[in-house]
Design brief:
By secondary structure, the chain is of the alpha/beta class. It has 16 helices and nine strands. One of its GO terms (molecular function) is choline binding.
Length: 306
């Protein structure tokens, strides 16, 4: 009877454990931004070389956070601080989502205009309203769910922009609009950030004066890795990788350029980026173990054909 009781108790205990306690599958999401598509794909490729299965969904930021809170997602590579603080604040105090590692420094995130608009005297948020007609009272954002600060500025009538429209589309749609307006010499104000190839593909200038909304230094930001509560303790080898996986503006911009300029999938761009910079693997994978207990560095290199 004792062995049978113990077995029954073990079965009941296992049934009570959440499905996400299994570390073989790592579930991530990103909001459709090229930088996060790239960093998520790099993470995905490394994890698969370690023996894990992976999934990356494209979801709005509020949905990502709610899914992490429910335990439906494990990791998110893209908390832009402070630009995404309004999204994260609702989860910060509860501890349902943990910020574990700054994976990129030197980022920025605020509004920009074409260089010829800046040269005409629009250098600050405060200059926009005086030229409302030239801008057609329109602010260009990206995916719905990613423009909350822009929408809040309009709702508050900050900078006299209360009657302006926020046009939400996508990162690619916004940049296509920028290309059209630049060819025509038209005026446009839009959400811009670095790392991103837009900073070299277009002559753009970031606007001053948005510190109260986007932070100082043109929305100077860090990008951090976040996980659902307790995930690093449950899956320490995945957690080790996530705590060591660090990018920089130049590396991220290079990989994003592969996606935007040559139209490969994020997975292909990630493999190409790693192949161009294999020296990064040692720091990213140091001390880690594969799912079968092996050393991560040779396993990942073999999986990537390096």
């Amino acid at each position: 009877m004792e062995p049978r009781l113990a077995t029954a108790d073990a079965i009941a205990l296992c049934a009570a454990l959440p499905a996400w306690a299994d570390c073989s599958m790592v579930r991530m999401a990103e909001p459709g931004w090229t930088d996060l598509a790239l960093t998520s794909a790099v993470t995905q490729g490394l994890l698969e070389g370690m023996g894990h299965q992976t999934r990356v969904d494209i979801l709005g930021i509020p949905v990502i956070y709610e899914s992490m809170k429910r335990g439906d997602l494990d990791a998110f590579m893209g908390y832009w601080d402070p630009a995404m603080e309004t999204y994260f604040n609702a989860y910060r105090d509860s501890g349902a989502i943990e910020t574990i590692h700054v994976n990129l420094e030197g980022a920025k995130f605020t509004w920009a205009v074409p260089a010829y608009v800046h040269e005409a005297g629009v250098t600050s948020f405060a200059d926009l309203a005086a030229h409302a007609d030239r801008f057609e009272r329109t602010l260009y954002g990206i995916e719905p769910g990613s423009n909350e600060i822009m929408l809040d500025i309009v709702a508050r009538n900050a900078f006299g922009l209360g009657d302006w429209e926020v046009r939400e589309s996508s990162e690619q749609g916004m940049l296509a609009q920028l290309a059209r307006e630049e060819r025509r010499g038209n005026w446009m104000v839009f959400l811009a950030w670095a790392p991103h190839p837009m900073n070299t593909h277009f002559e753009i200038r970031y606007l001053e004066g948005g510190d109260d909304y986007y932070g100082p230094d043109f929305g100077g930001a860090t990008v951090s890795t976040q996980v659902r509560k307790g995930y690093v303790e449950e899956c320490p080898q995945v957690g080790k990788l996530l705590n060591q996986l660090t990018f920089d503006v130049a590396l991220a911009s290079e990989g994003m350029g592969y996606i935007l300029d040559e139209d490969p999938s994020p997975r292909d761009a990630a493999r190409r980026l790693i192949a161009r910079h294999p020296e990064r693997l040692e720091g990213w994978l140091s001390g880690g173990r594969t799912t079968d207990g092996g050393d991560t560095l040779p396993a990942v290199k073999a999986d990537l054909g390096l």
